Amino acid sequence: MYSLKEFKEVFDPVLEKFLADRIEEYLTQTSDPFIKEFVQYSKRLTLSGGKRIRPYIAYVMYVAMGGKDIENAIKLFISLEIVHMFALIHDDVMDKGNTRHGVPTIHHFVSKKLKDAKRSGDTENNSEAQAILVGDLFFSWAMEIFLDNRNFPIENITLAHDYFYKMVDEVILGQMLDIDITTREKAEEELITEKTRLKTSRYTFVRPMEIGASLANTTHNMDDFCESLGTKLGIAFQMQDDLLDIIGDPKVLEKAVLRDIADHQHTFFTNFILERGTLEQKDTLLQYLGKELNENQQQEVIKIFSDSGAIENGKKMILQNLEDAKVIISRSSLGDEYKQICYDLIKVMQARQS
User: Fold this and answer.
1) Alpha-carbon gap, residue 316 to 176, rounded angstroms
2) Cβ-based neighbours of 124, under 8 Å, separated by 6 or more
3) Which residue, 120, 151, 182, sits at the end of a domain?
4) What are the backbone dihedrals phi and psi of residue 103, each rounded to the nearest 5 degrees, phi first?
5) Neighbours of 32 (CB within 10 A)
6) Given CB 3.0 to 4.6 Å as the disulfide criterion, which of 40, 62, 251, 345 pairs with 67?
7) Phi, psi for 222 (deg, rounded to 5)
8) CA distance 127 to 167
9) Domain co-membership, 158 together with 9
10) What is the C-alpha to C-alpha distance for residues 180 and 172, in angstroms, rounded to an integer?
């Protein structure tokens, strides 16, 4: 069994080859050098970072359920990373993000090229439109990986594909909630939890595990395990993201902190202040939500998160969800080797800084 680090070392060359081959084939249909440039750039962006958690956890469940064809399974699990890139490209447009993993996002890359070339028209809108189309292209490739697969029995592919479609539906609905929440002065914890369940738990953990299990065994009977474990891991993972947005190191994160505040995003941490903070803390938070903050204002907001107890409470919730996940693993029918792999993944999550 590969560790997460070992898996990434094996997985990334396969991902790179798939993208290189697919992009080369796709671009034979046009002679336009500009389109060739930014479509080629999408490969660089995809390979610039990422932990590969989704394909890794699919791989773990595939092997745990008796899967033997590791090479072809990894080729199929590329679809999880490709559809993830589709989601990230669109997410960057929605959030107006300029960098990801320390390199320009697609729409920012295209925008700069258009401006450098002194193109006419609405270059900002055009750059966003091109990014959306590249994202759509990635979604098409993700579907193609499943539909063209001939390496596994049709019943396994069909079941895995069903989970894949559910995952896509759920992450899109989660993103709809994510966007809608930014228009509200306050979001209830129940709604934040629902968004997290759809956009993080199901997308990052539950469905990838079910996809891996189904590829190995159509009668795996592990849905309840995947749902319960994936929910705990997803909540912890999302809360870690939200916490790092407050107290993380911008150099390690490769992005500015407090983007959730600037984007008027409600999280478990903002909800804690709005529910339990002092009147002054609530008023200050509401005053800054949706605004770009200078350094002094950032320090003021971070102090509010600290003084209110939001950070301490959030850390406790993260730890509790990870401890609950360990209990779920210990009580599962997984073999000891696979339980240990799951425990090791939790250790990686506990230590994450980005």
Assistant:
1) 28
2) 111
3) 151
4) -125, 160
5) 9
6) 62
7) -115, 10
8) 28
9) no
10) 12
Q: At what angle do helices 53-64 and 207-216 cross, to 10 degrees?
A: 40
3-state class (DSSP) for residue 104:
strand
Average pLDDT rounded to a whole number, residues 212-236: 97
Q: Which pTM does this prediction carry?
A: 0.95
Q: Are 139 and 86 in contact (CB under 8 A)?
A: yes
Amino acid at 4: L
Same domain, 164 and 103: no
Quick one: 117 and 263 in the same domain? no
Residues facing residue 103 across a β-bridge: 100
Q: Nearest Cα to 52, choosing from 84, 90, 87, 100?
A: 84
Is 232 in contact with 324 (CB distance < 8 Å)? yes
* Per-position b or e across 267-291, b if 16+ CB within 10 A of its CB: bbbbbbbbeebeeebbebbeebbee
Statement to judge: residues 207 and 314 lie in one domain? yes
Buried b (16+ CB within 10 A) or exposed e, 173-201: ebbebbeebbeeeebeeebbbebbbbbbb
Number of domains in the chain: 2
pLDDT one-digit tens code per residue, 42-72: 999 999 999 999 999 999 999 999 999 999 9
Together in a domain, 133 and 68:
yes
Q: What is the pLDDT of residues 141-170, one digit of tens each?
A: 999 998 889 999 999 999 999 999 999 999
Position 50, amino acid? G
> Please, what is the Cα angle at 167 between 349 and 6, to 5 degrees?
40
Q: Which two tokens stand for residue 303?
A: 């102090």
Single-letter residue type at 112: K
Place of tokens 């990230």: 88
* Phi, psi of 251, deg, nearest 5: -70, -40
List helix spans (H) across the chain. Answer: 4-27, 33-47, 53-64, 70-95, 106-116, 123-147, 154-181, 189-196, 207-216, 223-247, 250-253, 259-262, 268-276, 279-288, 295-307, 310-330, 336-351
Can you name the residues that pair with 100 across neighbouring β-strands?
103
- Provide the residue type at 53 as one letter: I
